[in-house]
Structure formats: C-alpha cells, structure tokens
TrEMBL record:
A GO term for molecular function: dioxygenase activity
Organism this protein belongs to: Marilutibacter chinensis
Keywords on record: Dioxygenase, Iron, Metal-binding, Oxidoreductase
InterPro entries the UniProt entry points to: CDO_1, RmlC-like_jellyroll, RmlC_Cupin_sf
Protein name: Cysteine dioxygenase family protein
Family per record: Belongs to the cysteine dioxygenase family.
CDD domains: cupin_CDO
Length: 197
C-alpha cells in the first residue's frame, strides 16, 4: 500500500493528535511506547481541540464498527475508531502478537481481561482475571502475551466509541469460542474495516 492510499481522515485536531501519537511511538520499547500512548490518549480524549470524525458515532446494526482513520507512513501504527451499538461486544480474543492501546472516547465499555491457564492443541483454558467499566478518558494497554480480553457496550440505549492504536494494522486475530467450563476453542478471524467518510 503506497503512502497516497494510507487511511488518513480529516477531523478537528488531526495534526495535534497525530503529532502526539508519533512522539509516543518513538519513545522506546513496547512498554515505554504503550505507557506514553496511554497518557497521550487520555490527554487527547479530554482535549477540546480534538474531535473524531462524525462517522465514528454511527453504529452498524449487526456488528460493532471498525473504522481505520489513520495509518502512519513512518511508524506503521494504525488508528482504528470502534463504534459499539447498545449490547455489542467481542468474544474472547487476542491481538495476534501486536501491542495495542485502547481508550474510551465516548460512552462506557465493560472490559474483561482473561488469563490463559493451559492449552491443549487448539483448545485453551481461560479464567476471567478482572474487569472494569471504562468511561470517557480512560485508556489501557495490551502487550502480548497478556492480550486476551473482551469488550462490550452494556448499555441498552447508548452508543460507545473507543480509539485503538495498534503497532501495525490488525487484519486478523484469534477468537475463542466457549466450550465446557473454562475451555474455549480457538478460531481464526479476519477483521474487516468498515467505511469511514
């Protein structure tokens, strides 16, 4: 993909946000980068000069929306806005080895971390290892191998929006389908990008 075709949507505060993300991504190893990005994302969510494109507030009826609004031609990171309609969420999933920083931009999301206890081929045993209700301005990070989690909008009538900064474009992941007890079956899942305008 050439630099001319990389996603780059205009929005208020575009340059301010991207300069802050570039500085954070250049800050060192993955632990330093994700720590810097968490702080940056929390600041940018609260910054009145920065507003995400209007399209990210438009839910899609049959799935949560993933809209890539920027991809860095220099650092390679990807910025994806996710729109969560009432009750929409993910199964237990990983990030295929990519670090990620996730921040709640609007609304509230329930995030549950999972601990991998054991593996038997393509069967994985997980246990919920803590959860939180995350509101606007909160951010967290995932660094493999601690990357298993679910995200859900538990509201019956409100839309939630989150912003996700990935090390690189995340085009697939493993999702885990419940079997018996704490056991899950792993399935490969390709991740689509929804239209952004």
């Amino acid at each position: 993909m050439s630099a001319q075709t990389l996603p780059d949507l205009p929005f208020p505060g575009h340059d301010k946000l991207l300069q802050a993300l570039d500085a954070a991504v250049a800050s060192g190893d993955e632990h330093a980068i994700t720590a810097a990005l968490r702080g940056t994302l929390c600041r940018m969510i609260r910054d009145r000069d920065v507003a995400l494109p209007a399209c990210v507030y438009e839910p899609i009826d049959d799935h949560y929306a993933r809209r890539e609004i920027y991809r860095s031609p220099i650092h390679g990171y990807s910025v994806v806005a996710m729109t969560w309609g009432p009750g929409q969420g993910t199964p237990v999933h990983d990030h295929c080895g990519l670090w990620c920083v996730e921040g709640v931009w609007d609304g509230e999301l329930e995030i549950t971390q999972y601990e991998l206890l054991e593996r038997d081929g393509e069967r994985f045993r997980f246990r919920a290892a803590g959860g939180m209700q995350a509101g606007p301005g909160s951010a967290g990070s995932l660094i493999p191998p601690h990357e298993y989690h679910t995200i859900r909008n538990t509201s019956a009538d409100e839309v939630a929006v989150s912003l996700h900064i990935y090390k690189a474009p995340m085009e697939c992941c493993s999702m885990f389908v419940p079997q018996e007890g704490e056991w899950f079956a792993r399935l490969d899942k390709s991740l689509d990008i929804d239209d952004a305008h």
